[in-house]
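Hi Y.,

Following your request, here is the sequence exactly as I used it, all 282 residues.
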Amino acid sequence: MEWPQTSGLCQILAARPPQPLSSPAPRLIVAVTGAHGALGQALLRRWHRRGATLIALTHRPDSGEMAPLRLLETDGAEIPLRQVGWRCGQEAELAPLFAEVDVLVLNHGVNPYSRRDPEALSLALEVNALSHWRLLELFAREVARRPERPSAEAAEGRRGVPEVWINTSEAEIQPALSPLYEISKRLLGQILSLRALDLAASPPGGRPLLRLRRLVLGPFRSDLNPYGVMAADWVAGEILRQADWNLGLIIVTINPLTYVLMPLAALSRWAYFRCFSRGGTP
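Below is the corresponding structure, written out as C-alpha coordinates. Let me know if you'd prefer a different format.
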Protein backbone atom coordinates (compact mmCIF):
# COMPACT_ATOMS: atom_id res chain seq x y z
CA MET A 1 0.00 0.00 0.00
CA GLU A 2 1.36 3.38 -0.91
CA TRP A 3 0.74 6.18 1.59
CA PRO A 4 -0.21 9.61 0.29
CA GLN A 5 2.70 11.99 -0.06
CA THR A 6 0.85 14.70 1.81
CA SER A 7 0.85 12.76 5.06
CA GLY A 8 4.62 12.33 5.02
CA LEU A 9 4.17 8.78 6.33
CA CYS A 10 5.15 6.96 3.18
CA GLN A 11 8.69 8.23 3.61
CA ILE A 12 8.79 6.91 7.19
CA LEU A 13 7.32 3.48 6.58
CA ALA A 14 9.09 2.83 3.27
CA ALA A 15 11.93 5.28 2.90
CA ARG A 16 14.00 5.20 -0.24
CA PRO A 17 17.74 4.67 -0.10
CA PRO A 18 19.69 7.76 0.96
CA GLN A 19 19.90 10.35 -1.81
CA PRO A 20 22.37 13.06 -0.78
CA LEU A 21 21.10 16.56 -1.38
CA SER A 22 24.59 17.81 -2.16
CA SER A 23 25.51 18.31 -5.80
CA PRO A 24 28.57 20.13 -7.03
CA ALA A 25 27.06 21.56 -10.20
CA PRO A 26 24.80 23.27 -10.66
CA ARG A 27 24.45 24.56 -7.12
CA LEU A 28 21.20 24.49 -5.26
CA ILE A 29 19.93 27.90 -4.18
CA VAL A 30 18.76 27.64 -0.57
CA ALA A 31 16.93 30.41 1.32
CA VAL A 32 16.52 30.20 5.10
CA THR A 33 14.33 32.42 7.28
CA GLY A 34 15.30 33.00 10.88
CA ALA A 35 18.89 33.20 9.70
CA HIS A 36 20.02 35.13 12.77
CA GLY A 37 18.91 32.28 15.04
CA ALA A 38 20.94 29.31 16.21
CA LEU A 39 19.24 26.74 13.97
CA GLY A 40 19.11 29.08 10.97
CA GLN A 41 22.86 29.62 11.13
CA ALA A 42 23.51 25.92 11.69
CA LEU A 43 21.44 25.03 8.62
CA LEU A 44 23.26 27.62 6.52
CA ARG A 45 26.61 26.15 7.56
CA ARG A 46 25.47 22.62 6.74
CA TRP A 47 24.16 23.69 3.33
CA HIS A 48 27.39 25.58 2.64
CA ARG A 49 29.36 22.37 3.18
CA ARG A 50 27.18 20.77 0.52
CA GLY A 51 28.04 23.47 -1.99
CA ALA A 52 24.73 25.36 -1.94
CA THR A 53 24.32 29.03 -2.78
CA LEU A 54 22.95 30.62 0.39
CA ILE A 55 20.32 33.31 0.93
CA ALA A 56 19.81 34.42 4.53
CA LEU A 57 16.34 35.90 5.06
CA THR A 58 16.41 38.11 8.14
CA HIS A 59 13.85 40.35 9.80
CA ARG A 60 13.93 43.97 8.70
CA PRO A 61 13.09 46.31 11.61
CA ASP A 62 10.97 49.44 11.35
CA SER A 63 14.11 51.53 10.92
CA GLY A 64 14.95 49.55 7.79
CA GLU A 65 18.48 48.90 9.02
CA MET A 66 19.19 45.19 9.35
CA ALA A 67 21.82 43.78 11.65
CA PRO A 68 24.47 42.41 9.27
CA LEU A 69 24.90 38.64 9.34
CA ARG A 70 28.48 37.41 9.26
CA LEU A 71 28.59 33.65 9.28
CA LEU A 72 31.83 31.81 10.01
CA GLU A 73 32.86 28.21 9.54
CA THR A 74 34.44 26.26 12.38
CA ASP A 75 37.89 27.13 11.02
CA GLY A 76 37.08 30.85 11.08
CA ALA A 77 36.56 31.21 7.32
CA GLU A 78 33.69 33.51 6.36
CA ILE A 79 30.81 31.81 4.57
CA PRO A 80 29.60 33.63 1.44
CA LEU A 81 25.90 34.39 1.54
CA ARG A 82 23.35 36.92 0.39
CA GLN A 83 21.38 38.62 3.15
CA VAL A 84 17.86 39.76 2.30
CA GLY A 85 15.54 41.56 4.70
CA TRP A 86 11.80 41.02 4.89
CA ARG A 87 8.87 41.86 7.18
CA CYS A 88 5.72 40.02 8.22
CA GLY A 89 2.84 41.33 6.15
CA GLN A 90 5.16 42.35 3.31
CA GLU A 91 6.02 38.86 2.09
CA ALA A 92 5.10 39.73 -1.52
CA GLU A 93 8.33 41.72 -1.80
CA LEU A 94 10.19 38.39 -1.86
CA ALA A 95 8.46 37.19 -5.05
CA PRO A 96 11.38 38.04 -7.41
CA LEU A 97 13.76 36.25 -5.06
CA PHE A 98 11.59 33.14 -4.80
CA ALA A 99 11.63 32.82 -8.58
CA GLU A 100 15.18 31.45 -8.34
CA VAL A 101 15.12 29.50 -5.06
CA ASP A 102 15.31 25.69 -5.05
CA VAL A 103 14.84 25.04 -1.32
CA LEU A 104 13.00 27.41 1.01
CA VAL A 105 13.43 26.71 4.73
CA LEU A 106 10.84 28.47 6.92
CA ASN A 107 12.47 28.59 10.31
CA HIS A 108 11.61 31.96 11.88
CA GLY A 109 9.57 32.28 15.05
CA VAL A 110 8.89 34.07 18.30
CA ASN A 111 8.23 32.73 21.80
CA PRO A 112 5.92 34.82 24.02
CA TYR A 113 6.65 32.49 26.98
CA SER A 114 4.00 33.06 29.69
CA ARG A 115 2.27 36.07 28.09
CA ARG A 116 -1.39 35.86 27.12
CA ASP A 117 -2.27 39.49 26.36
CA PRO A 118 -3.82 40.44 22.98
CA GLU A 119 -0.57 41.91 21.67
CA ALA A 120 1.35 38.72 22.42
CA LEU A 121 -1.38 36.59 20.84
CA SER A 122 -1.38 38.70 17.69
CA LEU A 123 2.41 38.56 17.46
CA ALA A 124 2.58 34.79 17.95
CA LEU A 125 -0.09 34.05 15.35
CA GLU A 126 1.40 36.47 12.83
CA VAL A 127 5.02 35.38 13.13
CA ASN A 128 4.70 31.67 13.93
CA ALA A 129 1.78 30.76 11.68
CA LEU A 130 0.36 33.31 9.25
CA SER A 131 3.68 34.57 7.85
CA HIS A 132 4.75 30.96 7.21
CA TRP A 133 1.49 30.33 5.36
CA ARG A 134 1.84 33.47 3.23
CA LEU A 135 5.45 32.62 2.34
CA LEU A 136 4.43 29.08 1.41
CA GLU A 137 1.66 30.32 -0.88
CA LEU A 138 3.91 32.97 -2.42
CA PHE A 139 6.62 30.43 -3.16
CA ALA A 140 4.05 28.05 -4.66
CA ARG A 141 2.76 30.77 -6.99
CA GLU A 142 6.27 31.63 -8.15
CA VAL A 143 7.09 27.97 -8.73
CA ALA A 144 3.90 27.54 -10.77
CA ARG A 145 5.10 30.31 -13.10
CA ARG A 146 8.43 28.64 -13.81
CA PRO A 147 8.98 26.90 -17.12
CA GLU A 148 9.52 23.17 -17.02
CA ARG A 149 13.16 22.37 -16.46
CA PRO A 150 14.74 20.19 -19.13
CA SER A 151 15.56 16.65 -18.11
CA ALA A 152 19.22 17.27 -18.88
CA GLU A 153 19.35 19.84 -16.09
CA ALA A 154 17.90 17.36 -13.63
CA ALA A 155 20.43 14.78 -14.78
CA GLU A 156 23.23 17.17 -13.92
CA GLY A 157 22.22 17.06 -10.28
CA ARG A 158 19.66 19.79 -9.70
CA ARG A 159 16.44 18.48 -8.23
CA GLY A 160 13.43 19.00 -10.40
CA VAL A 161 10.81 19.73 -7.73
CA PRO A 162 11.36 22.83 -5.55
CA GLU A 163 11.07 22.22 -1.83
CA VAL A 164 9.71 23.98 1.23
CA TRP A 165 10.89 22.88 4.66
CA ILE A 166 8.68 24.16 7.50
CA ASN A 167 9.74 24.08 11.14
CA THR A 168 6.48 23.39 12.97
CA SER A 169 8.29 22.32 16.15
CA GLU A 170 7.46 19.58 18.62
CA ALA A 171 5.08 22.11 20.16
CA GLU A 172 2.71 21.10 17.36
CA ILE A 173 1.70 18.10 19.48
CA GLN A 174 3.57 18.40 22.80
CA PRO A 175 3.56 20.96 25.63
CA ALA A 176 6.19 23.69 25.34
CA LEU A 177 5.44 25.60 28.58
CA SER A 178 4.37 28.54 26.43
CA PRO A 179 0.63 28.45 25.58
CA LEU A 180 0.71 31.03 22.78
CA TYR A 181 3.72 29.35 21.19
CA GLU A 182 1.87 26.04 21.25
CA ILE A 183 -1.32 27.54 19.81
CA SER A 184 0.50 29.23 16.93
CA LYS A 185 2.61 26.18 16.09
CA ARG A 186 -0.41 23.90 16.11
CA LEU A 187 -2.21 26.27 13.78
CA LEU A 188 0.80 26.18 11.47
CA GLY A 189 0.79 22.39 11.52
CA GLN A 190 -2.91 22.26 10.64
CA ILE A 191 -2.45 24.74 7.79
CA LEU A 192 0.46 22.73 6.41
CA SER A 193 -1.52 19.49 6.50
CA LEU A 194 -4.46 21.14 4.75
CA ARG A 195 -2.53 22.91 1.99
CA ALA A 196 -0.28 19.92 1.34
CA LEU A 197 -3.29 18.15 -0.17
CA ASP A 198 -3.08 20.54 -3.13
CA LEU A 199 0.50 21.84 -3.14
CA ALA A 200 2.25 18.48 -2.76
CA ALA A 201 -0.20 16.25 -4.61
CA SER A 202 0.99 14.49 -7.76
CA PRO A 203 -1.38 15.03 -10.70
CA PRO A 204 -2.00 12.09 -13.05
CA GLY A 205 1.03 11.68 -15.26
CA GLY A 206 2.78 14.67 -13.71
CA ARG A 207 4.84 15.71 -10.76
CA PRO A 208 3.87 17.66 -7.63
CA LEU A 209 4.22 21.41 -7.59
CA LEU A 210 6.26 21.32 -4.38
CA ARG A 211 8.02 18.86 -2.12
CA LEU A 212 7.02 19.71 1.45
CA ARG A 213 9.03 18.61 4.47
CA ARG A 214 7.71 19.09 7.99
CA LEU A 215 10.41 19.63 10.64
CA VAL A 216 9.23 18.48 14.06
CA LEU A 217 12.03 19.49 16.39
CA GLY A 218 12.47 19.03 20.11
CA PRO A 219 14.11 21.56 22.45
CA PHE A 220 17.47 22.78 21.20
CA ARG A 221 19.58 25.57 22.62
CA SER A 222 18.79 28.96 21.11
CA ASP A 223 17.78 32.50 22.05
CA LEU A 224 14.16 31.32 22.12
CA ASN A 225 15.04 28.41 24.41
CA PRO A 226 18.32 28.78 26.29
CA TYR A 227 17.48 25.63 28.27
CA GLY A 228 17.27 23.33 25.25
CA VAL A 229 19.05 20.01 25.63
CA MET A 230 20.12 19.53 21.99
CA ALA A 231 22.78 21.47 20.12
CA ALA A 232 21.50 23.40 17.10
CA ASP A 233 24.32 22.16 14.88
CA TRP A 234 23.53 18.54 15.70
CA VAL A 235 19.83 19.14 15.00
CA ALA A 236 20.70 20.71 11.63
CA GLY A 237 22.82 17.70 10.74
CA GLU A 238 19.99 15.33 11.63
CA ILE A 239 17.54 17.35 9.53
CA LEU A 240 19.69 17.07 6.42
CA ARG A 241 20.47 13.41 7.10
CA GLN A 242 16.77 12.54 7.23
CA ALA A 243 16.15 14.64 4.12
CA ASP A 244 18.83 12.55 2.40
CA TRP A 245 16.65 9.55 3.22
CA ASN A 246 13.80 11.32 1.37
CA LEU A 247 11.66 11.68 4.49
CA GLY A 248 8.85 14.19 4.34
CA LEU A 249 8.21 14.05 8.08
CA ILE A 250 11.51 14.87 9.78
CA ILE A 251 11.53 14.36 13.55
CA VAL A 252 14.50 15.29 15.73
CA THR A 253 13.83 15.06 19.45
CA ILE A 254 14.77 13.21 22.62
CA ASN A 255 11.10 12.54 23.39
CA PRO A 256 10.18 9.03 22.16
CA LEU A 257 6.45 9.81 22.28
CA THR A 258 6.82 12.29 19.43
CA TYR A 259 8.02 9.55 17.09
CA VAL A 260 4.73 7.73 17.73
CA LEU A 261 2.26 10.59 18.07
CA MET A 262 3.38 12.80 15.18
CA PRO A 263 2.94 10.22 12.39
CA LEU A 264 -0.48 9.34 13.81
CA ALA A 265 -1.45 13.01 13.93
CA ALA A 266 -0.26 13.52 10.35
CA LEU A 267 -2.25 10.53 9.11
CA SER A 268 -5.44 11.50 10.95
CA ARG A 269 -5.24 15.07 9.65
CA TRP A 270 -4.68 13.85 6.10
CA ALA A 271 -7.73 11.57 6.30
CA TYR A 272 -9.95 14.22 7.91
CA PHE A 273 -8.99 17.06 5.57
CA ARG A 274 -9.22 14.84 2.51
CA CYS A 275 -12.70 13.67 3.46
CA PHE A 276 -14.17 17.00 4.55
CA SER A 277 -12.53 19.60 2.33
CA ARG A 278 -12.56 20.18 -1.41
CA GLY A 279 -9.48 20.58 -3.54
CA GLY A 280 -8.68 23.58 -5.64
CA THR A 281 -5.90 24.93 -7.78
CA PRO A 282 -2.60 25.23 -5.90
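The longest strand covers residues 53-59.

Thanks again,
Q.
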